[in-house]
Amino acid sequence: MSEFKIKLARIEAFEDGAQGKQVCAVFHIERGPTGFHVPICLQGRDFDDTEVVQAAKNSLYRMFVELTNQSKVWELSPAELERLSKMNLHPVE
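Now predict its structure.
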């Protein structure tokens, strides 16, 4: 499998009422034909551009670690994958 390409797509700053200033770094993640955006919002802090990117990268990393932990039960062994690939659920015409 090819590696993921992760790029910072944009940084947005906005006011969010009671929570004050919000900064949102949006990452574009791509692998082959699949691509998607992941927004990382940081609340109530004033960061310069470098600090925003570092803090957002850290949050993105922690999010994917948690996602890995939560989806670990879905992992199949090589034998299970082979068994599934050999199943023919569609009738042969």
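The two ends are 33 Å apart (CA to CA).
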